[in-house]
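ping. complex inputs:
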Amino acid sequence: MKTDQLIATLAADTRHERPLWPGVLIPLVPALAASALFLALGLGVREDFWQAIMVPVSTMRLVLSLTLGVLALRLGLALAQPGREVHARVSVVVLVPLLAVGLWLWAAFAGPAGGMSMAIQGKTMVDCLLFIPLLAILPTVALLLALRRGATLHPGRTAAAAGLAGGGFAAAIYALHCTEDSPLFYVTWYGTAILVVTLVSGMLGRRLLRW
Amino acid sequence: MPPQTDDWADLLEAASGGDARAYTRFLQTVTPVLRGVIRARGRGLGDGTCEDVVQEVLLAIHLKRHTWMAGTPVRPWLYAIARYKVVDAFRARGRRVELPIEDFAETLAADLGPDPTEAMDMGRMIGLLGGRAAEIVRKIGVEGASVAETGQALNMSEGAVRVALHRAFKELARLREGHLS
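pong. complex structure:
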């Protein structure tokens, strides 16, 4: 086939494809809803939810996780579309863990002396490390599938961003159930869980997001 | 002579709106640039193989065109996609290339003549497509039929032809992936 012939054929395909944004919402929203439903029905929302949400240190979990999810999603979308601004989006994503570490240090020094290792360990570390990755599976897979329609030049990094977003959203959902309100606990273990999701997604995505 | 300034964005924007002629012009305009870069980097592969790579890149641009955002410059987007795909296509043929993005901008004026080269791979892949999809691609590409004519000949609605054509391109890209790399 000659190239001019190919061009004529390509030009006949005038179907309009949905852009990644807001197209990504089509798989992502149901995935998030399913994860949230699993939490509500399986684990249950914490009983003192409305009291806890008035306590800033407790609410920060939700705010930080959700912010991380949204910002990482924006980064993933930029990475999946060549020519988009990426550096600024990386910077704002990095800001979230920095803030979290700041919060951790503040809690470590402002909190009661002694008992710090107990506060880090908490009572539900295993649940946290188990359920956050579990809740992250659907949103992360949904994002990876959506980003396959993109044209990333860096499949691993883009998939890691998807994992970071999925992990962030999952942590925010899990925070509705979890009663550990100390930053020493949640920054440590939420952070670890999100990191695991990010790494696994990044590894999977190196193959999955190639095109 | 194809336009040298940023009418690329105008053409591509019109194309996104469904203007097939603007889209044809766009693809015809970028093809010599791609061909220039690919031949310069693929010396020794032969013109036929280079043309295979040109066609692969065109197919990739087509399938990823929704990742370009109207109102943004076309070139950084286009060159990034082309570079990724050229490196990929050469690697699939056992050749590693370094391909600075500047290559694309610099070969802009080179090698603009009509091209007589017949590429091989795409024809083979179309053969592998088989059935209706292959027939549609051949009718439009080789026989130069319009979508409407193709629909009449195959007893399909225009919409159905378009859907089948769109799927055929995705399938072609997938086939290429499986057969070369």
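Chain B has a mean pLDDT of 86.
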